[in-house]
Amino acid sequence: MITLNDYLYSGDTIFRILRNYTVDLKKEAKKNHNEIDLIHSNFLIQFRELLEHNDFLTAQSQKIRDFYKYMVQEYPLLAFTFKGRIKSLIRAEEKFNGYIVEYIYDYYEKHHTYPPVPDLREKLSCFRDIIAYRLVISLPKCHIRDDKLREEEEIKYLYRIANVLPGFLEERGFTAEPAKGVLESRSPFMDEAVKPYYRDYISNGSGGSYQSLHITFYDNCSRSYMEVQLRTKKMDDIAEIGAANHQAYEKEQERVRARREAIPEGECIYFDEAYERGMRLLGLELKDLEVNMFAAANNSLINDGCGLYRGRLILPYEHLSRFQTDLND
Fold first, then answer.
1. Under 8 Å CB-to-CB from 214, ≥6 apart: which residues?
2. Which residues of the chain have pLDDT under 70?
3. What pLDDT score does 242 carry?
């Protein structure tokens, strides 16, 4: 079995690593008649094409910029940022293998047998967030001093923006994808017309500290999917540097260990290989990697000039509120 780890110590570029890993993975898949590794290699080909195809990203980010300009005019009191990225190679590989492990485990727990390959193939066709944008808003404290009232007002603003976003982007060549009932919003601030398209981790979350609104669009020009996340600054802080980030990591570690204990080793090659690939990635010492434009002093101090670990940045748009009037005055 080959893994991405085998290609991260040669000093190659991201593109060469992807090409070599994809070619070797496909050869091994054909040799061993491994259908899932064939899907895996095709997924990596699509991922590489996104990294190589710059033209559509320029056009796509310009359309996102149109919404940024709309917000500058519509919400002058708010400060906000638009961030965009292509998922990192390491995270994309983790997620692909994680989907395999999760689906086989859930199927085994329910049916006490392993899923048919066609079912697993269908599960692995659901990647929609390789390209993702995040909108983070903040109502400056100079407008509302009371923390609770300000937080409530920010959430109202967030839902107002969420109500407008699908129609705005659909006029510019995007199609909102139905969420199929997953985490459908319970918020009275979200319009009924857009509720079927959002996964609402604010009003319908799992009880953890993570909060956000997620919606997926299909870009009809580039024929690719993208995800948009909407958060307040407090939500973003918790997700990125707070409790949600740490809790998610710890819970995932617990889930991974439990799944391995539940599935007897050697009974399902697809589970075994995906689990092993995922565990090897989790065990990476980033300071030892030899990838062009990447360096790390340890697993926290990272200079990622190629998007290997943190993803490739597409855009940052920032609007800092100029108004300093207290709304309570």
1. 198, 199, 201, 227, 228, 229
2. 205-207, 243-254, 256-257, 323-329
3. 77
* Burial class, 120, CB count within 10 angstroms (exposed 0-12 / middle 13-18 / buried 19+): buried
Q: Classify burial at 302, counting beta carbons within 10 Å of its beta carbon; exposed 0-12, middle 13-18, buried 19 or more.
A: middle
Residues 6+ positions from 47 with CB-CB distance below 8 Å: 18, 87, 89, 92, 130
Which phi-psi region, left, alpha or beta, contains residue 320 (left: φ > 0; alpha: ψ -120 to 50)? beta
For the chain, the domain total comes to: 1
Q: What is the CATH number of the domain that holds 188?
A: 3.30.460.10
Whole-angstrom CA distances from 40 to 36, 275, 276 are 6, 14, 15
Supply the range of the domain harboring residue 97.
4-319
Residues of the chain by 3-state class (helix, strand, coil), percent to 5: 50, 15, 35
Tokens of 288: 């030892």
- Phi/psi at 219 (5° precision): -85, 105
Residues facing residue 80 across a β-bridge: 137, 319
Identify the pLDDT of residue 325: 55
Residue 325 lies inside a defined structural domain of this protein: no
Distance CA 42, CA 30 (A): 13
Asked whether the beta carbons of 38 and 30 are under 8 A apart, the reply is yes
